[in-house]
Amino acid sequence: MDVKLISFTPDPERTVAAAARMCYSPVGAKRILEDFSDKEVEDFLRKLVAMGHMSPIEHASFTFAISGISRSSSHQLVRHRIASYSQKSQRYIKEEDFDYVIPPFINNNPEAKEIYEKEMDNIRNTYKNLIKLGVHREDARFVLPNACETSLICTFNARSLHNFFKLRCCTRAQWEIRKLADKMLEEVKKVAPILFEKAGPPCISEGICREGAMSCGRIKNH
Amino acid sequence: MDVKLISFTPDPERTVAAAARMCYSPVGAKRILEDFSDKEVEDFLRKLVAMGHMSPIEHASFTFAISGISRSSSHQLVRHRIASYSQKSQRYIKEEDFDYVIPPFINNNPEAKEIYEKEMDNIRNTYKNLIKLGVHREDARFVLPNACETSLICTFNARSLHNFFKLRCCTRAQWEIRKLADKMLEEVKKVAPILFEKAGPPCISEGICREGAMSCGRIKNH
Amino acid sequence: MDVKLISFTPDPERTVAAAARMCYSPVGAKRILEDFSDKEVEDFLRKLVAMGHMSPIEHASFTFAISGISRSSSHQLVRHRIASYSQKSQRYIKEEDFDYVIPPFINNNPEAKEIYEKEMDNIRNTYKNLIKLGVHREDARFVLPNACETSLICTFNARSLHNFFKLRCCTRAQWEIRKLADKMLEEVKKVAPILFEKAGPPCISEGICREGAMSCGRIKNH
Amino acid sequence: MDVKLISFTPDPERTVAAAARMCYSPVGAKRILEDFSDKEVEDFLRKLVAMGHMSPIEHASFTFAISGISRSSSHQLVRHRIASYSQKSQRYIKEEDFDYVIPPFINNNPEAKEIYEKEMDNIRNTYKNLIKLGVHREDARFVLPNACETSLICTFNARSLHNFFKLRCCTRAQWEIRKLADKMLEEVKKVAPILFEKAGPPCISEGICREGAMSCGRIKNH
Predict the structure, then answer these.
(1) Do D79 and D164 fall within a single domain?
(2) Looking at this predicted complex, what is its ipTM?
(3) Bridge partner list, C87
(4) Which residue in the list A168, A172, A178, A218 is annotated as catalytic?
(5) Nearest C-alpha of chain B: how many angstroms from D48?
(6) Which residue on chain A is closest to C82 by alpha carbon?
(7) Cα separations (Å) of C6 from B166, C64, C197?
(8) Number of domains chain D contains
(9) pLDDT of B155-193, one tens digit each?
(10) Which chains touch C (3 or more CB pairs under 8 A)?
């Protein structure tokens, strides 16, 4: 799995703080990014996140290039509707020698790993044979497994990212999308550390767990 | 593939027309659904669609139960973000004897069909063997193919449906989602015939084709 | 202020519960609404809301006709983006004798009320005089006050409503939109009592207050 | 009216083209922005827009600081739901000496202008008098007119902007939001000329007019 932040709103924290300041101060739009010390930017951001007034953080967007995740994961990822996606198409791109993801549990069990890898080889062969028989890619791909690797570019604003991290960084999320979410969080923390300092599962962002009997126990249930 | 309209805004066309009337007439909100003949409802709707003023048609929602489509199709379907989805989970539900979709081209080619069906049997066996080795469903599903059948419930408003039909009823859409879109359109036409009388690909809804060299030629390119 | 629920997804709680059941049970789409006792429906709903798994409740939509609210309120209302609106247009409808909202504080202060009402009369006259001078409605309306009454039809799904109630039923919300939200909540509780039994400000829905020093004190701050 | 593009996705056209390339080419995510000549970027963009495949252009976002527009305009603007807004609050900010917009038609008619300006003075006085009587800002603002100037920061992605320009750059749009849209288009053309070269009303973007009898006649009706 490879996750790279390829683009983002320049100076994202100042942009967000300026937007927040617009709501509450009689400051003109023209000079909204100026006369605003780093300390003030920081204070505004902390206050917003603490009070849960999240709308101004939408002004900062983050674009990721992601590769080496399974189609299972991408199917979960694209369910987050407040985001934009451009994904490698199995209709247009040949998948003769597709790469695939191996779940860690399977990877650690030699017997399971053997039958898993054999199945992947079988599927590759079947795919190739179907292509040879004149089947189009868009139909041959019906044999491709969930494990098949995909690549995509996605853009989220900071508010939608906070929601994504809340759901997907939780230990109850599926391991692969959790790994993806953790890497995405790591990337954005590098460029917007205050904006994302409280991002993560509810036990981190809100000090609460709502998973009931399924809780991992990291903190006491609410 | 099975598509059933299981619920929708009662009297959808009257609801939409009432909303449209609200914008342009000094009529009170209380009696907005009354004093409004069927003929007036019809006229309002036709005018809205003709002028492309689509926002009032959002007030009518349609909920479908869909089963027997492939995971390939559902992956395309859920990319439509202005809609709500509840899909059968491969993390929670056992898929030992999953049903699968056979693309028509493969179904019509005995040789292709044979290797396709054999592959599906192989995958079923591998899935079962992984489960026997203690692999959890959420990991065993990595071997499941795109062909695997899924079920879901989705809700679209009429405006989002119009957009969906525009893109997916086109002959250039992939055959399976096109079949799905055609069935969904058939269902809503039964209960809201005027609202959807011009729904479909741009050649029908707008009298235009933008597919350029890829056009099916049904109408002349714009 | 008049708020009327004019349309909604029939049997909203059963529809939502059926969608939720689709995710976790191997039940076919065709019979998804059947074989499902009222008790089961109720249990499913309570579990969803308790765990905060809100996506299935999006399948139920509610359409309101609202009149007698100020343009101030409608400006706040339409900021809720996951909803559909059709609002009375001041560009197309004459506002010579517009009705207006009087804030309770002003209504209870005879002196303030007098200058307020006099101002409203002035504005009406100015509007009429501008129209007489050939000014179009879309320009004459520039003198109309925030107090001016408006009517609209809006449609929210249950998830977006929960969010709306969380923000706008709070004692810290502005009095008019709070009154509107309270009335909308009252309306939907009549037709979907379980779906909305925990709807309201965070002190009710989550047992938490995040308003810090601004808290009304109904419950202790988190 | 002042419109300033204060932030945007760096290198927006390359970002969009890279996302589009991801869908159709077997290129890795890691090097997606590299090995891509300016000419290739340009060709990709032109093809996307020509074919109406607009989803990749969502990856570029644009943030504007806007001031000196009326509350009438901002009410129309915020109806565009696929965007983010932070607007100057009349609940929190004193409006004793509010600035206001004068519609050109009124400005050019001395008699109309006189009664318009007198009304604005009256309203200012009434606002001040209410404040003196202890009325809170959030209630005193009920007398403020639609003409009252506001400031806001908004962020749109390129796809939502295309839709905004299609509706609001049309000669049938209200004059003020049209002026705003024209200025926003001018701003983004400076930094993403290819992405927006065909942006504008349908007569420009699609070579079509759907306004029927209301058409301005710039091109023949469809």
Answers:
(1) yes
(2) 0.93
(3) C152
(4) A168
(5) 11
(6) A82
(7) 30, 6, 21
(8) 2
(9) 999 999 999 999 999 999 999 999 999 999 999 999 999
(10) A, B, D
